[in-house]
Amino acid sequence: MAELVFFSGTMDSGKSTLALQMDYNHRARGRGGVRFSRNDRAGDSKISSRLGLQTEAVEVVDSTDFWDEVVLRRTQGIRVDYLICDEAQFYSAAQVEQLARVVDEIEVDVFAFGITADFRTRLFPGSQRLIELADRVQVLQVEALCWCGRRSTHNARTVDGVMVTEGAQVVVGDVDMAVDPAAGGPGSGAGYVPVVGYETLCRRHFMRRVTAHGASIIAQQDQLLPFEVDACLWHGSSGSSAGGSAGVGGRSGS
C-alpha cells in the first residue's frame, strides 16, 4: 500500500540528506521517482544538503499541481512509483491534499520532508496539513544542538545576532550567517545592511531569546553561562526593535 509519510525535524536535523538517501535507495531497486523542492538554499530546482550533497529537482511554485505532475509523466510512459518532496513546509495546504490524492488514487508513495514550525513557533500551513493527513509522521532522530549543547527544539531567526519574533513567515536564506560580535549593529552607517540568519535553540534559550551571539556578548561581560543567563541582560532580549528588519535575507522561516 502506498503511503504519505512526513519526516519532520528542526534545521540541521538531516532532512534533505535523508531525502537524497531515500531517493538513491529507491532508484537502486529499480523504482522510478520524481524529486520536488521549494526555496532550497542552493537555488531553484535543487535539493541540497549541508553535508555537500546536491541533485536536481522540480521546483514547486504556487501553481504546481502534483496530481497533474504525476499524470503527465505516466501518460508519457515515464515510471512514477514515488515522490520525494523536500522543503514541504512551503507547500500550500491544497498541494498537500493533492499529494494525499496521489497516494490514495494512483498508489504513488510520497515522502515529504520539512520543518514543522517557523521562527515564531507557529505551524507552517504545509506542515500543518501534512500532520493532519499523513499516514505517518516521523520525527528525525538526528538531534540538532543549541549553542549550550542541549537538544535544539526551536528554530530562531536573528538580525545581527539578535533573535526576532516578528516578520514574514517565509524568508529565504541559510543558517550559516555568522555575526561578528565586534561589528557594528543597526545604524552603523548609511549603507548598513542587517545580517539575517537562523539558528536552532533549546526551549530554554528560545524562551529567553539568548542566541549564540548574545551568549558571546554576555560571556565577554563576565556573566555566568549558561546557568544564570537572563535574556534581559543584553540589548537583544526584547526583539521589538529588530522585528521590523526580519524580512531581509535569511532562510525561509526556518
What does this structure look like?
24% of the residues lie in helices and 19% in strands. It contains 6 helices and 11 strands. It has helices at 15-28, 66-75, 93-106, 125-133, 203-208, 212-220, and strands at residues 4-8, 33-37, 46-48, 54-56, 58-59, 82-85, 109-114, 136-139, 154-159, 162-164, 196-201. The strands form 3 sheets. The protein has a 6-stranded parallel sheet, sandwiched between helices. Strands 10-9-11 form a 3-stranded antiparallel sheet. Strands 3-4 form a two-stranded antiparallel sheet. A hairpin with a 2-residue loop joins strand 9 and strand 10 (162-164). Helix 3 (93-106) packs parallel to helix 4.
